[in-house]
């Protein structure tokens, strides 16, 4: 019977057309993966009936909108809608999904700012937040600093501008921060120097200026530091040579001076 189905895994099965509204009859469904197909149109409103759903993955399709009923999926842990054709603001109702661990809306055409009414403060369990490669704009909101479990934050390849918020320093579990390919300005903020677990920091192709702060040495876990295509100036601080980096890219800036002698094969 339809009501007894728990899992549907049809990844990469050449499915096409719209998703039938009858999917809402699968009231016991906990796992739904229809990724890597050619499904089109909107997710049906009836998807809000799947209140036991923990995993929803429609990545790599041609879905064009998310219904407001998504907010009814209170058991959802992983929501993946990357690489579709979503052209709209981020639905505010996603903020009601308080059990989310993964939220991946990357590789779409989402518009506007990250809404404050997204109720980010309710997403206490969120570990992966991926909004990379969209058309989101405005400033990076300071309320992102209220995600205590966040480990990976992707905001790259959008239209964000202005300063990097100081509240980023509250994300003590953050390991990966991608802010490349935006229009971020001002200097490298001190808030980034208070992330003890950060190992991958990418800020390429922005409008950042000024020196690299000497306090960069406090990022002891850092392995990848990428700041190409900005307006960074002054000299490379000696302290970078003390980090055990796998990759350092400071190309296409206006940094002067000589390469510090602290750079050696043991640290790079």
Walk me through what this model shows.
The chain is mostly beta strands and 268 residues long. It has a domain at 2-138: Alpha-Beta Horseshoe (Leucine-rich repeat, LRR (right-handed beta-alpha superhelix)), CATH 3.80.10.10. It contains no helices and 20 strands. The strands form four sheets. It has an eleven-stranded parallel beta sheet, with no helix packed on it. Strands 9-11-13-15 form a four-stranded parallel beta sheet, with no helix packed on it. It starts with 6 loop residues before the first strand and ends in a 19-residue tail after the last strand. The mean pLDDT is 93.
The fold-level CATH name of the domain at 2-138 is: Leucine-rich repeat, LRR (right-handed beta-alpha superhelix)
**Low-confidence spans:** none
**Strand segment count:** 20
Task: For the largest sheet, list the strands in their spatial order.
Answer: 1-3-5-7-8-10-12-14-16-18-20
Distance between the termini: 59 Å
Shape: elongated
Tell me the β content: 15-25%
Task: Tell me which CATH architecture of the domain at 2-138 applies here.
Answer: Alpha-Beta Horseshoe
Structural class: mainly beta
Rg of Cα set: 21 Å
- How many strands, what sense, and barrel or not for the largest sheet? 11 strands, parallel
How many helical stretches? 0
What string gives the helices and strands in order?
EEEEEEEEEEEEEEEEEEEE
CATH level-four homologous superfamily name of the domain at 2-138: Ribonuclease Inhibitor
Instruction: Please give the CATH class of the domain at 2-138.
Output: Alpha Beta
Mean pLDDT: 93
